[in-house]
Amino acid sequence: MSEKIEYTPFHPRWYRPHIPVFWWLRRRSYLLFVLRELSSVFVAWFVVFLLLLVNAVAQGPDDYRRFLDWSAGPGVLSLNVIALCFIVLHAVTWLFMLAPHAMVVRLRGKRLPAAVVGAGNLVAWVLASALVASLILG
Amino acid sequence: MTDRITLRVTRYRPESETEPTAQEYEIPLRKEWAILDGLNHIKDHLDGTLSYRWSCRMGVCGSCGMTVNGEPKLTCATFLEDYAPGPIRVEPLSNFPVVRDLVVDIGDFMRKLPQIKPWLIRSEQEPPAENEYPQLPAEREEYERFSMCINCMLCYAACPVYGLDQEFLGPAAIALAQRYNLDSRDQGASERMDVLSAAEGIWACTFVGECSAVCPKDVDPAGAIQRYKFTAAMESLKTLLLPRGAR
Amino acid sequence: MEPFLWLLFSAGGVLSALLIPALLLLFGLAFPLGWVSPPDHAHLSAVLGQPVTRVVLLGLCVLALFHWAHRFRYTLYDGLQLKHLGRPINLFCYGAALAGSAVASYLLLAAW
Q: In CATH, which of 3.40.50.150, 3.40.630.30, 3.20.20.70, 1.20.1300.10 is domain C2-110?
């Protein structure tokens, strides 16, 4: 509201607070939300990392060896430690907090409770991880 | 054990102030008193100029929503004792323009609400039923949760997306649209679709989830919005992939 | 358009949540730190030689990139209050996702 308008009982002068740029620092749940959304940056970084790996394997044993050495360097390693934290945050929030709320899974016409959907996601996560590990480790 | 507690209440007197200020009141701390009882004590015994809204005192009317120590709460269902030894900050709901003291203007929601047509819509091709439209308990269960909404606006106060962009339709309005969409007696889902699946409708929501966390009636608007995103996405896919006749 | 972008975002969210933790734990931490000895080149080459593996990885890459594009766009909109710059933000996010998808297709399909 502009300051010029004069207050009368029939014309309220509202107070509208301004939202600060870093509004998400003021509440724990908002901070968690922004961190959750920022996990997507590390999802994108992982795609880059994965494509570099695929390319190195395609080029031959020497490039693959060089990729492994590069990924053990302090810079890449610490980036990947941070990335893993964010990826786990993404997986946990997505599979156990967001999806059980958003998904309607029915069994014999009855909607399953969110906890059951979450448990199903946990099973899927364990199976997918086991499959990935067994493929890579042979 | 002290038997008094301080309420730090936001005052805004538009006839004399441009910014809200905080005013402290010391009130008795009683086990059975909610924040609203404290405010009523102030109004009756300490300062009759304090303005706030309330009506039923039992969590049904949805008028007494305020921000208590930073959290949107129904003040009739939030007890002084849980905040002892205080002081307790009592502020107006966030994200709404403040009219005076603890009173906010919810006109924006009142203008949005009719847009989602919160009533049972029947197809005009069919003649109305001669008696009532029957419904099974299982069909009732589909929407019952969303019908508990008391329009208290706590979800709007908790929603950062609404705070940043008032064009956003908002949690309660979308949950109420789903309350009718999921009702087996309703045939109006397609009429609500345009408003709901607009950019300022469901797609503006980023699933912060705070609307569901603060809801005093356990309505779960966040869940309602995500469910509708899926419905709307499937409808769009159908429109894209299926020939006109098969939709 | 929004419903389709949201579907890509959601599919990417699911796939990323299921597959990336294990992959990143192995290649990002376990092998570099020597917790587990890395597979030799011949084995990885054989695994990647399977068309199924490469198609799944391509799906993961494309959907994960669109997942990023959607979330990052809204983070910029709301987190930094940049909604008025919607057009350049969209161009950047979805442009990057498309370019990344093209690179991924090249590396996983054409160049193999």
A: 1.20.1300.10
